[in-house]
Give the backbone structure.
Amino acid sequence: KRKMKNTTDLRDELIAVFSDLKKRKIDVGSAKTMVAVTNSILKSASVEADYNKFLGNKDEINFLRTPKDKG
């Protein structure tokens, strides 16, 4: 399995989950669990961004960077 490095990878993984669900390769419960974990990951990144904003930090959050950003 490949490592999820950023939101682009996360989105690609969710698209694969949706595809697998439609093809009945995974059950609804598993898909719901994956979506819940995804929401936790995104909430964590959001909290980190809010914290940086509160402190006035300009630090980048690597997970929010996409391959296009690295240009």
